[in-house]
């Protein structure tokens, strides 16, 4: 397993528990990349009807079970998500999306006027309307990774940090037989899984494979601890459009939520700027301004820190779960964009299925890297 | 708009502003405090003549020179973010309370952001009345207020003596000065200070004050517990072995109403890290210092001076400030003479290295606390919680923070970050440079979200339109 983020560790823990022998390697260590740079969202609300929503709902069902198994270990809270629209036109679009999601089983509640402000008293009265998604939840992803790592180790699996993957040696049939790393070679019996998130493209290339993943940078603002302005996750309806919008710029869209420690997390932005870690104060200002538009009381709340993270983005915004076309024995589990935390358990089920386990409860073909084949030379 | 913004109004920043200004550069000098001087030369809020003479004999001349040179002073302002823009750097300002205070753009910067104090935890250190030595000194200098009537000054390093002497002069009864190290057992390092008459003279003057007040000077000892109800009522002072482990025999209780603690300083790297400047960590020390070559950094137009580049004291900081100011002037095309005082800089650097060698940290401080001792006060993280995380496999400060929240609170790890770094290094047997630190996620100081400003607003000097905001800049 290459990558000790939430996806790699969820897969590693599941495979080890199912009797495979797992070794997770990471260039730094557990949750050192994007898993510690997001908000820990488990969302159905931002998923488009179809594949996207089907997989998300299967994954969230699994998160609910995990939260019971690991009671209290990673701050799981099914707090519910409220998507709000700033004007009537946006509200109409939001309601149309919600209806389509409801047809596929998502629990949605359309809210406007007094009903909306009763649910969310601190919300700006400028908001036209909203949709409440009761399945949306939040976890503390670093603690969840820690829980997966402990489970992995309890079942006899290994995790080694500070290891860079260098290349692969192939066996007679062309499958990867040994993985070359900065810490020596690792024998591979069944498969190498590339769960390197935004760095998965580089990892694939050094193993003779290919996966079209690019880093899509986001900023998160963390405030001082305050009395919670909202018990829910609240975000602008433009957020869903921003995910699917390839235009340049910051892609800023307000996402507001409180954490159990009292701090508030404010997102979001989407930029294609490589792996640059330089905080852009203009992006911070844009996020703050949009968040204040939803919750005017945020004006006087102080910003404590900001951080950036890199979402692993694919051209069609869907994850890649399947065997590389050029490198037999190399399975990809990446490309989750901003949904890696939410989709980690489903991804683990998918990889288990690819290695001969039971069906994950959703179709795997659409997630295969084969879908990008026509894009290649 | 000034050509050069100097961030930090301590010895380094003042010297940089003067040197650049003397070469014809228009300079803005920023500081968080209401008046210049930095931590070391902190001025009283109110004093008889406003000259600063009470704080440092050469300060009146320095303040006058800054005034005469036309350096624009912007005090009571913090920089919460800095970012490169076409043609220079943009600084985002806030007041110490976190209100927005506009933006500045300048082609060149001198960062002279100084250092914060290192404190190592012991049982009861979170009791009211236990503070950093610097905080006690600041309170005395700034507001003329004594932290307590009966005080113990403890920790390690040359800073304990001036703080203790200032408390005596301020009227406190200093029950003891408790130094964990034993500089007299390091004759080689001590001998190097022979070449530093200024340091020796200062030390002797502090010792004279302390001797006059019959203050006991303990070496190889530490405050290993503070006890009390509402606030500190007594401290336990233990004899230490060479590794700073408490010796079973020597323990003594001092009745005090305040304890001032300092184990040296850690450079303030927030802005340097925001700009992506590289830094380095000294063996066995927490934190890191900005890398530079004669004050010049890897980033065009950004210069560094003072404690930010490594702890060296006010004299070295002034020399470095002068050098950085001149380098900035040359960068801006003002043809400042290359008159850096190489000899003086080299001497001051050797003295600083000598002082650092006199006061190394030792790992025995880990035994001064118990499982319940709180390390991160903002997030209430105990030594026990940190030890459990380390036993669970955490190998870096980052991992420790992830599973315990240590350093994620209001102060952003300013106090607990260096402690966590030393703790991880000790537990994993790795160098402090390799375990990381908590200077990771920059916002240099908390700032109100409403002050971040609309993304498209022009960078305006809002203070020009606000006479109240401009007020402090007229005071040196």
Low-confidence stretches of chain A: none
Q: Could you name the CATH class of the largest domain in chain A?
A: Alpha Beta
- Share in β-strands of chain B: 15-25%
CATH topology assignment of the largest domain in chain B: FAD/NAD(P)-binding domain
What helical percentage do the residues of chain B reach? 25-40%
Characterization of the model:
The complex is a heterodimer of chains A (377) and B (476). Chain A has 377 residues and is α+β, with helices and mostly antiparallel strands. Chain A has two domains: 6-71 and 140-213 and 316-376, FAD/NAD(P)-binding domain (3-Layer(bba) Sandwich), CATH 3.50.50; 81-134 and 214-313, D-Amino Acid Oxidase, Chain A, domain 2, CATH 3.30.9.10. Chain A has nine helices and 18 strands. Chain A has helices spanning 6-17, 51-69, 88-103, 113-119, 141-154, 200-206, 238-243, 281-294, 340-354, and strands at 23-25, 41-42, 81-85, 108-111, 129-133, 137-138, 158-160, 165-170, 176-181, 184-187, 192-194, 214-223, 233-236, 255-258, 264-267, 302-313, 320-323, 330-334. In chain A, the strands form five sheets. In chain A, strands 4-5-3-13-14-15-12-16 form an eight-stranded mixed beta sheet, sandwiched between helices. In chain A, helix 1 packs parallel to helix 5 (141-154). Chain A is globular and about 70 Å long. Chain B is α/β, with parallel strands linked by helices and 476 residues long. Chain B has three domains: 4-115 and 265-338, FAD/NAD(P)-binding domain; 119-263 and 361-369, FAD/NAD(P)-binding domain (3-Layer(bba) Sandwich), CATH 3.50.50.60; 370-438, Orthogonal Bundle (Arc Repressor Mutant, subunit A). Helices cover 31% and strands 23% of the residues of chain B. Chain B contains 15 helices and 23 strands. Chain B has helices at 11-22, 59-68, 133-143, 160-169, 187-192, 197-212, 270-274, 313-331, 342-358, 383-391, 397-404, 416-428, 432-435, 462-465, 467-470, and strands at residues 4-7, 27-31, 72-75, 78-85, 88-94, 100-106, 108-111, 115-117, 130-132, 150-155, 173-179, 217-219, 221-228, 232-240, 246-255, 258-262, 265-267, 279-280, 289-290, 302-304, 374-376, 381-382, 447-448. In chain B, the strands form seven sheets. In chain B, strands 3-2-1-7-20 form a five-stranded parallel beta sheet, with helices on one face. In chain B, helix 8 (313-331) packs antiparallel against helix 9 (342-358). The radius of gyration of chain B is 22 Å and the shape is globular. The model of chain B is unreliable at 455-476 (pLDDT under 50). Strand 16 (302-313) of chain A pairs antiparallel with strand 23 (447-448) of chain B, so a sheet runs across the interface.
């Amino acid at each position: 397993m290459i990558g000790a983020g939430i996806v790699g560790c969820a897969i590693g823990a599941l495979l080890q528990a199912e009797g495979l022998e797992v070794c997770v390697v990471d260039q730094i260590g557990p949750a050192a990349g994007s898993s510690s740079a997001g908000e820990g969202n488990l969302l159905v609300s931002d998923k488009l009807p179809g594949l996207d929503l089907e997989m998300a709902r299967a994954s969230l069902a699994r998160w609910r079970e995990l939260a019971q198994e690991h009671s209290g270990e990673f701050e799981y809270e099914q707090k519910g998500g409220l998507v709000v629209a700033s004007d009537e036109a946006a509200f109409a679009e939001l309601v149309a999306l919600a209806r389509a999601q409801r047809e596929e089983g998502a629990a949605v509640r359309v809210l406007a006027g007094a009903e909306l402000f009763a649910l969310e008293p601190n919300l700006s009265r400028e908001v036209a309307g909203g949709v409440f998604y009761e399945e949306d939840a939040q976890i503390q992803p670093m603690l969840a990774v820690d829980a997966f790592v402990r489970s992995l180790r309890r079942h006899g699996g290994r995790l080694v940090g500070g290891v860079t993957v260098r290349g692969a040696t192939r066996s007679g049939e062309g499958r990867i037989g040994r993985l070359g790393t900065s810490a020596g070679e690792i024998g591979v019996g069944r498969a190498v899984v590339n769960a390197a998130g935004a760095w998965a493209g580089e990892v694939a290339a050094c193993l003779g494979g290919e996966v079209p993943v690019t880093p899509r940078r986001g900023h998160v603002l963390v405030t001082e601890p305050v009395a919670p302005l909202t018990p829910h996750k609240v975000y602008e309806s433009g957020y869903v459009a921003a995910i699917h919008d390839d235009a340049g710029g910051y892609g800023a869209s307000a996402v507001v939520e409180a954490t159990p420690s009292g701090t508030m997390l404010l997102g979001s932005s989407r930029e294609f700027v490589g792996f640059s870690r330089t905080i852009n104060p203009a992006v911070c200002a844009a996020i703050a301004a949009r968040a204040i538009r939803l919750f005017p009381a945020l004006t006087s709340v102080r910003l404590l820190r900001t951080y950036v993270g890199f979402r692993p983005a694919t051209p069609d915004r869907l994850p890649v779960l399947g065997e590389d076309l050029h490198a037999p024995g190399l399975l990809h589990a990446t490309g989750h964009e901003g949904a890696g935390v939410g989709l980690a358990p489903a991804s683990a089920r998918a990889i288990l299925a690819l290695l001969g386990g039971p069906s994950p409860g959703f179709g795997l073909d659409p997630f295969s890297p084969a879908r990008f084949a026509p894009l290649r030379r | 708009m000034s050509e050069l913004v100097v961030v930090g109004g301590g010895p380094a920043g003042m010297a940089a502003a003067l040197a650049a200004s003397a070469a014809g550069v228009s300079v803005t000098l920023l500081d968080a405090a209401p008046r210049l001087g930095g931590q070391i030369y902190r001025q009283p809020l109110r004093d008889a003549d406003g000259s600063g003479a009470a704080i440092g004999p050469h300060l009146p001349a320095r303040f006058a020179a800054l005034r005469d040179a036309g350096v624009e002073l912007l005090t009571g302002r913090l920089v919460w973010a800095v970012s490169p823009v076409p043609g220079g750097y943009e600084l985002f300002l806030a007041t110490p309370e976190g209100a927005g205070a506009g933006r500045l753009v300048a082609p060149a910067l001198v960062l002279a952001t100084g250092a914060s104090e290192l404190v190592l935890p012991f049982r009861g250190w979170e009791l009211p009345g236990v503070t950093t030595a610097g905080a006690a000194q600041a309170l005395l200098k700034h507001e003329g207020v004594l932290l307590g009537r009966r005080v113990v000054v403890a920790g390690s390093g040359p800073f304990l003596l001036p703080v203790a002497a200032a408390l005596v002069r301020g009227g406190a009864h200093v029950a003891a000065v408790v130094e964990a190290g034993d500089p007299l057992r390091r004759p080689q390092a001590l001998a190097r200070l022979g070449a530093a008459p200024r340091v020796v003279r200062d030390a002797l003057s502090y010792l004279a004050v302390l001797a006059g007040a019959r203050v006991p000077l303990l070496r190889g000892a530490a405050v290993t517990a503070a006890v009390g109800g509402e606030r500190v009522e007594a401290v336990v002072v233990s004899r230490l072995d060479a590794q700073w482990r408490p010796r079973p025999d020597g323990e003594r209780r001092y009745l005090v109403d305040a304890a001032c603690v300092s184990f040296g300083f850690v450079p303030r790297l927030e802005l340097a890290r925001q700009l992506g400047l590289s830094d380095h960590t000294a063996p066995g020390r927490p934190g890191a210092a900005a890398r530079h070559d004669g004050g010049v950094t890897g980033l065009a137009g950004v210069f560094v001076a003072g404690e930010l580049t490594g702890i060296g004291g006010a004299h070295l900081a002034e020399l470095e400030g002068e050098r950085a100011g001149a380098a900035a002037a040359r960068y801006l095309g003002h043809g400042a003479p290359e008159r850096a005082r190489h000899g003086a800089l080299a001497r001051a650097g050797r003295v600083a290295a000598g002082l650092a060698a006199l006061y190394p940290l030792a790992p025995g401080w880990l035994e001064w606390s118990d499982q319940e001792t709180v390390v991160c006060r903002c997030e209430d993280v105990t030594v026990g919680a940190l030890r459990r995380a380390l036993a669970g496999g955490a190998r870096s400060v980052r991992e420790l923070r992830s599973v315990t929240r240590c350093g994620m609170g209001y102060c952003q790890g300013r106090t607990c970050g260096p402690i966590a770094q030393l703790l991880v290094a000790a537990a994993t047997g790795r160098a402090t440079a390799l375990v990381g630190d908590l200077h990771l996620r920059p916002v240099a100081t908390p700032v109100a979200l409403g002050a971040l400003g609309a993304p498209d607003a022009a960078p305006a000097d809002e203070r020009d339109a606000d006479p109240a905001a401009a007020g402090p800049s007229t005071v040196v």
